[in-house]
Amino acid sequence: MKKNRILLLFAHPSQHRSNVNAPLFEYAKSLDYVTAVDLYAKYPTYQIDIDDEQQLLNAHDVVIFQFPFYWYSTPSILKEWQDLVLEYGYAYGQDGKALQGKLFICAISAGGKEEAYRAKGYNHFTVRELLQPLEQTAYITGMTYLPPFALFSSRSAQFDHALSSHLAQWKLLLQALYHNSIDVRATESLITINELLGGSKTQGDKA
Q1: Closest by alpha carbon to 196, among 178, 207, 177?
Q2: What homologous superfamily is domain 6-197 in, according to CATH?
Q3: Domain map of the chain by residue range?
Q4: Segments in 3-115 forming alpha helices (H)
Q5: Flavodoxin-like fold domain spans which residues (predicted)?
Q6: Which among 23, 72, 161, 205 is least surrounded, fewest beta carbons within 10 Å?
């Protein structure tokens, strides 16, 4: 089976305060099949090299956006990256077919509890629903969208031992993406992909 090359785009505006995302990013950097890019370090003035970013996309089969889920969206540099790199004629439009067939997934950390991301919870929507603009971006560009890899209650993850199990799931996810062994159809009804990796069994509960 074909092995996938993975492009990980990491966006964290306050890395010195990151207890969750930094360890995941550091582990990904150690893998020879992952190209791990720290967008804030690469572009401290937001002067994104469109050609370089498009060449990176062309050379990889899987695209991961890794970021803390602040205010139900991506950090600003990741939005700037999308606006500039995913341009007409490259990522979409009549001749924009460069991304077709690639896998796309978000790896996020959320400060709130899992039950807060439900119809009757504090945030009123699931994380998959809140990430629908990115799901639609994948659809428009011809990429195959996978439900997000998510850690809830991220502020306390270090203290309640959730980080170690989350890192273990992260390793499983990266291996599965590399080996192209994820059954995409099995993920269509999931809120997060964690359940497929042995995570919470309540993530599909929209109540």
Answers
A1: 177
A2: Flavodoxin domain (3.40.50.360)
A3: 6-197
A4: 21-29, 39-42, 50-58, 76-85
A5: 5-171
A6: 161
